[in-house]
Design brief:
With 520 residues, this protein is of the alpha/beta class. It is built from 20 helices and 20 strands. It folds into four domains: 6-118, 3-Layer(aba) Sandwich (Cobalt-precorrin-4 Transmethylase, domain 1); 123-249, Methyltransferase, Cobalt-precorrin-4 Transmethylase, Domain 2, CATH 3.30.950.10; 257-287 and 428-516, Rossmann fold, CATH 3.40.50; 296-425, Rossmann fold. The structure holds S-adenosyl-L-homocysteine (SAH).
Length: 520
Amino acid sequence: MTEPGLVSLVGAGPGDPGLITLKGLARLKEADVIIHDRLANSKLLGHAKPGAELVDAGKGRATYRFSQEELNALLVEYARQGKRVCRLKGGDPFVFGRGGEEALACAEAGVPWEVVPGVTSAIAAPAYAGIPVTHRGKAAAVTFVTGSEEASHHEAGVEWKAVANTPGTLVILMGWETLEKITGALISHGVPGDRPAAVVQWGTVPGQKVVTGTISDIAAVAQKAGLGSPAVVIVGEVASLRDQLAWFDRRPLSGKRVLVTRARSQPSRLAAMLEEAGAECVEFPAISVVPLSDTAPIDAVIWRLVRHNSASGMGYDWATFTSPNGVTGFQVRLNALGLDARSLGGVKFAAVGPATAQALAGMGIRTDIVPDDYLAEAVVDSFRKRGFNGGRVAHFKSSIGRDTLPDGLRGMGADVDEIVAYETRVPDASPDEARAVFMPQNGGIDVTTFSSSSAVNNLAGLLGADAARLINGTLVACMGPVTAETARELGIRVDAVAGEQSIEGLVGSVVEMVKEGPKT
Ligand code: SAH
């Protein structure tokens, strides 16, 4: 008989994928089978190991794929096959999550199981709305209840009279459908009609919606604001603290959907920084980076770098890079030739921008120059200040787009060879897929970002005749004047140009632009 595996009931947290625990993430990464809920953020599934089996346990109340009994049986069955099972559940598995039933099924069947607690929405959704569930002088206790009618039909159902007479904060889960009934019941059992209340829908994720009011009007206010399930309802004095403590939905880009068109092979630092500012990012890479089709030219340059013998007129004094992709392309060929950083001893290295310098550091190379500023002139200036005095330069770049650095260095007397280190092409997406990104029924786009001319050209190419109309329906931010010029040539209105050609610069200009609104 196979050794039984392990069933881990893992709390995925309330929605923000950053709110899973370290232990939960470890279980997720090592799982052979992941059985996940609707409320567990699908971004977390990106951590699954290759080949892991993903089972969707249900999309919503109306469309359960499995009954609870079938799910319990499934957990036991996988464990008996020796699998490591991650049962990924929204919030905390043991807070209104039916995790107890799943644990009982495992215990009864005698298969090994454990629970990895999670951050429950009962606390996190109020927290992201700026509502502490307890607070000195306002609430010394907190009660979690279910508003589900199903539960109140059982003996263990909620006694609203007792709840109405319990001091402190009341947090109601699964209470959206019955909100009016519940608030009515609480008032009829003596809760003062002016007690503060709040509803938080989709707490902790970019689409979070919050309304506040009193227990008398909160149901109507939430209804009118178009809220819906999943939501938690908070009743108690603490709800009024939101006025001062709202933070998550008050960040500069909160509520904005931002299109990121950069290549996905670069770790999405842009998306991460935009999200930090509150945006919801929609990634639609308009560029894909592909390996070189002809490696002979770069290989020849690498051999000359290795020789580094200027005296013979054969070598190079400097190697310069303007993107992490260039560094990767260089490293791939260096290694393919059976070489590594040791062979490059005498060569000096320059990187335009910290991400590029970091990529070089990743291959064990310290950069001799990283300019403080990314504007073309400033970069050349920086080279001069740091003792660059001409010489032979190998400049590694992409197959398209223009770099201003080589000309600047030539102006300082350098002898620059430009070498293609990576190729880019239009990604395999259909025009329909590209257009769908902009459709209001898919959430629409508020801001479009372009970090290179090729991203503009490729996206416009995919969108075809509709390109300018669709893109001009959003605010548009471009990294650098060359990118902006390409956009304008295609009839795209540019609302912001990041002068500083860095991701930080682009994010800064998006924030500024959203504050000020579109240029007319
Ligand atoms: N085990 C989960 C709760 C599951 S019951 C937990 O600990 O969070 C499902 C209910 O949880 C929903 O009806 C809603 O009331 C609440 N809920 C879950 N995620 C939520 C979110 N992101 N925002 C608001 N409410 C949420």
